[in-house]
Amino acid sequence: SLLSESERWCAIEQMVKTEKDEENLFRRICRCPEKTIFEPHTYCRCCWKVKDGIFVHCKAEKLKDLLVPLVAKGFWQTVGEVLGRGVSERDEWFAVEQAVKRAPTKPLLPILPYCPEEKFRLVLQGLVQRGLWEAVGTLLFGNLTETDSLWAVEEACKTADERPLIDFILRHCPAEDFHQVFSILTRRRLWTAVKCLLHRAVAGDDTQFMWVVEEAFQHAPGVELKSIVQTYCPYACVEGGVRTCMRRGLWCTVSVLLKRGVSDCLRREAVEEACRMATFNSQAETDMFSNCTDDEIRNVFPTLVKHGRWVAVSLLLERDIMDFAQQLEVVKMAVKSSRAWDYDRDFGLRNTLFGFRDRTDQRDRFLSEMLDKGYWKLFVQMLKVSDERWAKEVSATKPNSRFDVQKVGSNGNLLHVLCASGLWRSMPHLVKLGVNPLAVDKRGCSLLNTAARSKRRPETLLLQCIRMGVGTHQARIEQQASESKHCQIYFKFPLPCAVVRTRTLMMRMLYESGACSNRSIRHAESRFERKWIAYTPEYLLHVKPYLEQLAATPRSLKSACRLVISHHLGVSGDRVVKIKQLPLPDSLRRYLQFSDLADFNVDECARAKCLYYEWTDRRKTLFGYEWF
């Protein structure tokens, strides 16, 4: 003990070699404190090698006394050697039981052959619970029966991971017993193991695993079931599997099964049910339409559109089997659909509308029909890929086309729709085509009103409208709108919108462009003094001082001359060309193009945007109606 505490192992080895009483030495070694033991099996092996085996001189009744301390200290290799000398069945069971509970796999293997036959199941259960699969295989080797192997699999399914369980089954279970193993695995819902074992199954036997496949149809998840069906599925199970998967909503598996070949009646039933229930989030779900006839597709189209299955609609449109009237009916149903405006989230709907847009031979006819029906949002979305693409398509529109760009509806003309959608680059092209930028909608709102109320880049839209020359005509439009029956139209004018949104930059742009005068600014200030917004901190700190400054400062002669020249240049989309032809210096040309308003204050725009979102909830229902 003293030598082991100081770790003087060479001295201990010499002591073992010179010791004559081997039994006494072995007994003392086994009684050493556990904290002082280092490589305890070395002592016993030294006794074995030097003295021709300590167990030769050790009596059988003494081995029993040595077995308890060996087990307590975990000397499992020595325990196996003691069991080899022969002990009672009771002592053997004691050693095996303790080893099954505590021993690692490698030293446990020599002890397992001493397991009593009547304790076989108990030992097997303990090994399975600990996950010692190598020891389980050693225990079953040579004693393997069908009952024991299936019982081991049953016990393993309760606690084991699927990967070691699969290796154990493939190593110790004959292939002819796989059908019983499948029964156990399907009851436990271990589908990964089922899928791996199907590769080792007997090929060509449709009846052997029919029950397994039917159970998979009933309970397996969609991904695992699809893999099982592709791996092995008897033909007799196909039709029943189609109905079961339809009931469970596993449409990807239904698509796979339909390719195996089913009756026409069942295929039509599956397609009709898919139109009502499937989400069509993957290509596999839409593959079930690949074998449908043209008449069948025409019959299911209304159902697909009605239930918003736009992915399937967009894919089926590529087959080009519907005439113009049917295609237009699809567009109308898309507009009426509850999900028709969810373009950002619904990828299938966006593809459907873009599919109509790309039909250049019928594009003008579609656009004309949409404008006649007032489908403004749908019209913009069908052509809204980028501003450059839109500008090219609009510029390519022929005067004798069915597409009337000058049409004015309840929401104004096409400029109003584009301005509300943020497509500001396309506006000059439309003005060149003859669209009137001074037109108003049914409420009397002008293009500047739409730009001021826009949620996307209102300053950019205002600048684009100002450069087309609409600023100096705003006073006349507001005067006509004030005389109309719309009593709340004043609060939709550009200046009140800028005040509510606390955009001082927009106020400056409106003032410099002639859209509002000093008198209108004083009038707006007096009207807002009676509203709750006049008591908000942002209005008191930023808006009110700026309004007072604009109202008190007379317009400069330079600014007044710019407004007069701009008004006489007229409203057109090619004002830049007209200004360049004037005999003026470059600095004055840039001034006439309102280049000073283009130098936006980035910090001011960012602050105004943050304030807008901060106060949106509070002023959402200002004056009894929604502002934006």
UniProtKB/TrEMBL annotation:
What InterPro entries does the record point to?
Ankyrin_rpt-contain_sf (IPR036770), SOCS_box (IPR001496), SOCS_box-like_dom_sf (IPR036036)
List, alphabetically, the SUPFAM superfamilies matched. Answer: SOCS box-like (SSF158235)
Concerning Pfam families, the annotation shows: SOCS_box (PF07525)
Q: Which residues form the SOCS box domain?
A: 544-598
Q: Which SMART domains match?
A: SOCS_box
> Per its UniProt entry, which superkingdom is the organism in?
Eukaryota
Question: What is the designated name of this protein?
Answer: SOCS box domain-containing protein
Which organism is this entry from? Answer: Batillaria attramentaria
